[in-house]
Specification:
Layout: H1 9-17, E1 22-26, H2 33-38, E2 43-46, H3 53-63, E3 74-77, H4 85-96, E4 102-106, E5 124-128, H5 134-137, E6 144-145, H6 146-151, H7 165-174, H8 185-206, H9 214-226, H10 234-241, H11 251-263, H12 294-301, H13 305-310, H14 312-333, E7 336-342, E8 348-355, E9 360-366, H15 370-386, E10 397-402, E11 409-410, E12 416-419, E13 423-424
Length: 425
């Protein structure tokens, strides 16, 4: 058995189990939810075990409470195969009146139905896992932590990145799938393609029992891949997928495909940020389009590292998807969220990391190079000057996050330039 790689969410799961009765770990398939939960569980029931699946279904029909018996925390893996477990766990938590009773793992968002009648508020904490960040996969030295950036007093950062342009192209294509990290490069990349094929061929239909056309799913995901990092409307994406095909998917059916992709955590769009500004400016409210992992976009487009190195514009867009993934993992560990800013004047900031205490940092994501770093720093300073610090805090930091570069540093204007191979939580 492969050695378990420590995940950033481990400490978050510990904290949740100490304060609430049940924890739902949700996220895309293959991201490591079950393995992470197994490290904390005292008893486990694998509901997708083909040997016992029918037995579990029968027990659930006769007396579902029997499935809940066992040492705690009890892991209910792939709980959604018996949706009634949700309310059964909620009821049991109410009556046991004790923390850390259950861990549920699943690859789909719980939806209120005839079989799930309660949201679980007050009984469940939700922990969203993503694919592995570069710190978790061992590809970042994590010499510059996000926590340090929020608390720094203007010091110079320390760290070293070993990621060059060739390695970066590979990491974008490999993605953060735990099972790919220790495999040979060619096999590691193939795993992302395997995941993508499973999504379009079966997972989109299994999520809600509605049969979906794999070819339409491929065309939709290819179009989404071409719009990574943009605020493209769903209608624009629908038109783009039909540009070279007379078959146009109806608006309602198209929306169902998108919602299915979101419900199984393949698509992970970023909401807009609404700061207090010195002067009235209309802020664009559209979400920014992202996949949960950059390798999904790579697989959808049918490309590889060599293709990215020949097309740095596309590589830059997919690097942004990877950078956003890592920022979300690190921010979540600090009880923060990641947003995007764009206003009517065209001023745009790739990522705003906002913590619960009101502190925030502004981040521009650039592949690398002096001119792109300079453009990013200019954008950050322009937005920073627009913020009304009488009504909200000033930015805790301004950072240009780059794909390549050996060392992090603080510019004379206060902007940090940090290679992604140095960044961590």
């Amino acid at each position: 058995m492969a050695k378990y790689r420590s995940r950033i969410v481990d400490n978050q799961l510990d904290g949740m189990l100490h304060r609430i009765g049940a924890v739902l770990i949700q996220g895309p398939k293959w991201c490591g939810k079950t393995t992470t939960a197994e490290q904390k569980a005292s008893s486990i029931i694998y509901l997708d075990d083909p040997t016992n699946q029918k037995t579990y279904q029968q027990v659930a029909e006769i007396n579902i409470k029997n499935l809940l018996q066992g040492d705690t925390p009890r892991l209910m893996d792939e709980w959604q195969l018996i949706p009634r477990l949700w309310d059964a766990v909620r009821f049991e938590v109410d009556h046991r009146k004790s923390e850390g009773q259950f861990i549920l793992t699943g690859s789909a968002v719980p939806i209120i139905t005839d079989e799930i009648k309660h949201s679980g508020t007050g009984r469940f904490a939700r922990l969203t896992m993503r694919t592995m960040s570069l710190q978790e996969s061992g590809d970042s030295s994590a010499g510059v932590s996000l926590r340090w950036l929020f608390g720094n007093k203007g010091e110079q950062p320390q760290g070293l990145s070993n990621i060059d342009i060739d390695r970066l192209a590979f990491l974008i294509c490999r993605g953060g799938w735990p099972s790919s990290v220790d495999k040979r490069d060619e096999y590691a990349i193939s795993l992302a393609t395997d995941y993508y094929e499973a999504v379009v061929e079966t997972d989109l239909s299994r999520v809600d029992g509605i049969k979906r056309n794999p070819e339409f799913a491929r065309r939709i995901t290819r179009s989404l891949a071409r719009h990574q990092g943009s605020q493209a409307s769903l209608e624009s994406i629908r038109s783009d997928m039909s540009a070279n095909d007379e078959r146009l998917l109806g608006e309602s059916s198209f929306a169902q495909y998108i919602n299915a992709l979101k419900s199984i955590f393949v698509v992970d769009d970023m909401p807009a940020w609404y700061p207090n500004l010195r002067s009235k400016t209309a802020i664009r409210t559209s979400d920014t389009r992202y996949f949960n992992d950059p390798s999904i976009a790579v697989a959808a487009l049918g490309i590889g590292p060599a293709d990215l190195l020949q097309d740095l514009n596309t590589m830059g867009l997919l690097f942004e998807t990877m950078a956003v993934r890592d920022l979300r993992v690190y921010a979540n560990a600090l009880d923060g969220k990641v947003y995007h800013y764009r206003d009517k004047s065209g001023l745009e900031c790739d990522a705003v990391i906002h913590l619960r205490n009101g502190s925030f940092g502004l981040v521009e994501i650039k592949l690398g190079g002096d001119s792109l770093v300079e453009d990013g720093a200019k954008t950050l300073k322009t937005l920073s000057e627009k913020i009304d610090t009488q009504k909200m805090k000033a930015p805790a930091f301004l950072m240009v996050l780059t794909g390549v570069g050996e060392f992090p540093y603080r510019r004379s204007d206060g902007v940090y330039v940090v290679p992604i191979g140095c960044l961590g939580v």
